[in-house]
Amino acid sequence: MARRLGRKKRPSREAHMLKEQLKIDSGIFDDQTMVYLSKFFNKGVMSRLGFIIARGKEAEVYVAEAGDAEVAKGAKYVIMKFYRVETSSFLNMTDYIIGDPRFSKVSKSKHAIINTWCKKEYGNLEIARLAGANAPKPYMFNGTILAMEFIGSDEGVPAPHLKDAVLEDPEHVMNSIIGQIRRLYLRELVHADLSEYNVLMKGSTPYMIDFGQAVVLRHPNAMRFLRRDVENIVRYFSKHYGIERSAEDVLKYVTGPA
Ligand SMILES: Nc1ncnc2c1ncn2[C@@H]1O[C@H](COP(=O)(O)OP(=O)(O)O)[C@@H](O)[C@H]1O
Ligand SMILES: [Mg+2]
């Protein structure tokens, strides 16, 4: 009993000190999150938490100032994605984790699922980088927090979503996105939530983000997700730029021999 209490107390003292050090208002993050966050600070992945840029059901996304860690070398900013344990639709998450052979042994507790989800997004981003797709470089994950490359301007302004961008050469952007879907496919990865909301436009270059739900080709629903991704992109460019491509042809190209 005494041991359990001791363990419970430690994070809150550490968390308190960290809140002071990082000038974070108490109440934003719970103690456990602060303990997770301290590791990013100690490793120099981030030095100061900036502003929140998105608050979704699954995660809150902050821009932070980068620290001096080797992994984030040259970066001025980093993206800190905090998965929320309370509101995450983790039942939905289990669909993408169960069936993925990489995570067959995961326990089904809510905390374990969210930690796995975070680790999964990190791993997926690594594959995306290896594939040569434009995606944020993953820096580090710990617990329910993921740090990755900031896609945006040198002044710290995040890149706009594809849905908000006005494209000068939409055909080129569309081809680039399709090319990236193919690169992922050749590395046996399917994004599985691709749409104009999960593509950021850094200048004229599209970047895919939000890889938590991405699955490997061995996942039983992988081809269904791939088709949906392709249809979303084809539909968007047809509706907003009048570019007519058949999803069937694009799918054939994506899955064609290397
Ligand atoms: N690496 C990044 N660089 C810049 N902005 C980002 C980055 N990652 C996420 N964002 C912003 O945060 C939002 C939410 O992140 P996302 O990973 O899509 O999480 P969600 O699961 O909540 O959709 C994005 O739509 C985008 O505006
Ligand atoms: Mg998203």
Order of helices and strands: HHEEEHHEEHEEEEHH
Task: State the end-to-end CA separation.
Answer: 60 Å
- What level of helicity do the residues show? 40-55%
The CATH class name of the largest domain reads Alpha Beta
CATH-defined superfamily of the largest domain? Phosphorylase Kinase, domain 1
Attached small molecules: adenosine-5'-diphosphate, magnesium ion
Number of domains: 2
Largest sheet: 5 strands, antiparallel
- Mean pLDDT across residues: 90
What is the tally of beta strands?
9
Could you tell me the CATH topology label of the largest domain. Phosphorylase Kinase, domain 1
Enumerate the strands of the largest sheet in spatial order, edge to edge or round the barrel: 1-2-3-5-4
Estimate the strand proportion. 15-25%
SSE-based structural type: alpha+beta
Contiguous uncertain segments of 5+ residues: none
Number of helices: 7
Do you know the CATH architecture of the largest domain? 2-Layer Sandwich
Shape: globular
Return Rg in Å.
19 Å
Describe this structure in words.
This protein has helices at residues 2-22, 31-42, 90-97, 110-131, 170-186, 222-241, 247-255, and strands spanning 46-55, 59-66, 77-83, 138-142, 145-149, 189-190, 199-202, 205-208, 215-216. With 258 residues, the protein is α+β, with helices and mostly antiparallel strands. The protein has two domains: 29-149, Phosphorylase Kinase, domain 1 (2-Layer Sandwich); 162-255, Transferase(Phosphotransferase), domain 1 (Orthogonal Bundle), CATH 1.10.510. The strands form three sheets. The chain has a five-stranded antiparallel sheet, with helices on both faces. The termini are far apart. The structure holds adenosine-5'-diphosphate and magnesium ion. Residues 53-54, 56, 58-59, 61, 79, 81, 136, 148-152, 158-159, 198, 200, 209-210 line the site of adenosine-5'-diphosphate. The site of magnesium ion has 3 residues, from loops.
